[in-house]
Amino acid sequence: LYDAKIQNPDVTKLRYVDSSVYLRYTLLVDSPRHFLDYMKKRGVIVGDWYSTPIAPSDSSAQMARYVVGSCPQAEMLSSRSVNLPTNRHMTDEDVQTVIDNVNTYEKSGS
Q1: Cross-strand bridge partners of residue 27
Q2: Do residues 30 and 106 make contact, with C-beta atoms less than 8 angstroms apart?
Q3: CB-based contacts of 21, cutoff 8 Å, min separation 6
Q4: How many CB atoms are located within 10 Å of the residue 51 CB?
Q5: Is the pLDDT assigned to residue 24 strictly greater than 90?
Q6: Please, which residues have CB within 8 angstroms of residue 93's CB and are 6 or more apart in sequence?
Q7: Beta bridge partner(s), residue 12
Q8: Residue 11 contacts residue 104 (beta carbons within 8 Å)
Q9: N or C: which end of the chain has fewer CB within 10 A?
Q10: Starting from the edge strand earliest in sequence, which strands make up the sheet with 25-28, in order?
Q11: DSSP secondary structure string, 24-38?
């Protein structure tokens, strides 16, 4: 439902393959913190688990021998990604609430 019903120019949907099952439904936004705060105010908990190219975020990039700038695409994607809830206990109404709030989100508004 997310893929079909989210229609907001201020968020970028990733391409998903119908034959696959995904643990996360990721969107890209300019300001993940703003988006998370916006959704939280509306009772929707959104995740940002992969906010750095080396996860979890408290991992040592140095220990992983990661060189900043060596994966610019991963750095860009991780700095903009948020994950919508995909809890198996969500009702159709819960999903619609998430969709409605994503569709009313404005990157410069509140």
Answers
A1: 13, 82
A2: no
A3: none
A4: 16
A5: no
A6: none
A7: 28
A8: no
A9: C
A10: 12-13, 25-28, 81-84
A11: -EEEE-S-HHHHHHH
Strand-strand pairing, 25-28 and 81-84: antiparallel
Q: How far is CA 47 from the centre of its chain?
A: 6
Query: Positive or negative CA dihedral for 87, 10, 100, 33?
Result: positive
Backbone angles phi, psi at 39, to 5 degrees: -70, -40
Structure token digits, residue 44: 């929707």
List all residues 6 or more positions away from 110 whose beta carbon is below 8 Å from its beta carbon.
38
If you search the block for the tokens 């919508």, which residue do you land on?
84
Q: What is the pLDDT of residue 109?
A: 63
Specify the pTM: 0.87
- Report long-range pairs for 50-56 (Cβ below 8 Å, ≥24 apart): 50/26, 50/78, 50/81, 50/83, 51/78, 51/79, 51/81, 52/78, 53/78
Tens of pLDDT, residue by residue over 46-93, are 998 888 888 887 888 888 899 999 999 999 999 999 999 998 899 999
- Cα distance between residue 56 and residue 46, in whole Å: 16
